[in-house]
Amino acid sequence: MDMDLITNILFAAVRTGTPLLLVAIGELICERAGVLNLGQEGMMLMGAVLGFIAALTTGSIVTGFVVAALAGVLMSLLFGFLALTLSTNQYATGLALAIFGGGLSAFIGQPFVGKPVDGLHAIVIPYLSDIPLIGKALFAQDGMVYLSFILVPALAWMLKNSRPGLIIRAAGESPDSLHALGHRVMMVRYLAVMFGGAMAGLAGGYLSLAYTPMWNEGMTAGRGWIALALVVFAGWQLGRLMLGAYLFGLASILHLVFQGLGFDISPSLLAMMPYVATILVLVVLSRSRDNPALQAPAAIGKPWRPVH
């Protein structure tokens, strides 16, 4: 393969992995706070359809992304009310949210299927984008890709070194201890769930406003579920999560590369590659289960009520 082909593959891998990275970031923060939200797929779809409709009707991509994030937050508040306030089973509630979001988004978006919108444009950084191999992949992307570049190290530092990060981790490890220190555990978990919803909405908005700037039913193609697996196999570490998202992006475009190179491979087999490759690689990355940093938060998925 020549240099230009490799450069374009890396560029496409980062772009394809970005929506998965965004939704997985939000889920990781939720789980670090002790909340397991399986409704990411539904929240992504609602963000995708409502963000697309907003951008199409107002002519503003920024408005579309704002609406997409708000749609995700509203869906997350529904989940929070049921799972946190009413203490319903988080697994069942998340699954119901995913199904509900998928059905509602299909109903709302039916009149808008196939309609195009002027998508998000790339922001090319002079000189840096000319670096061989990685320049185009890292410095000729759109604003949402750059946002993900900032969020990963910023949130990693926050979780490890800041007081808010310590509070979030305590909510997921020992909510009783956090409550005993005078902190509002339910508020912390609600905020984490809302952040996860906003990121899921932005991820959905990225699909309908940047990656493929149009709305189609079920366009998330299981990315919400893959994000849940990535968080687990990445050991709840943001750096590993970023790597896993881009590996998924790379695997997702390999069928185009193989076809371009003339390989005769079954389309069905190629369609499996992103999911199989991501899971296999991240299983290898997560083998060090003796490391406490790679283990699940102790209170994840468990309802919590203050003991008076």
UniProtKB/TrEMBL annotation:
Principal location: membrane
Bilayer topology annotation: Multi-pass membrane protein
GO cellular component labels: plasma membrane
InterPro entries on file: ABC_transp_permease
Pfam families linked: BPD_transp_2 (PF02653)
MF terms (GO), sorted A to Z: transmembrane transporter activity
Keyword entries, A-Z: Cell membrane, Membrane, Transmembrane, Transmembrane helix
Signal peptide: none
Cell compartment(s), UniProt: Cell membrane
Transmembrane segments: 6-30, 42-59, 65-84, 91-113, 133-159, 190-212, 218-236, 243-262, 268-285
Entry annotated with the keyword Transmembrane: yes
Transmembrane helix listed as a keyword: yes
PANTHER family in the cross-refs: ABC TRANSPORTER PERMEASE PROTEIN, SUGAR ABC TRANSPORTER INTEGRAL MEMBRANE PROTEIN-RELATED
Name of the protein this chain belongs to: ABC transporter permease
Source organism per UniProt: Proteobacteria bacterium 228
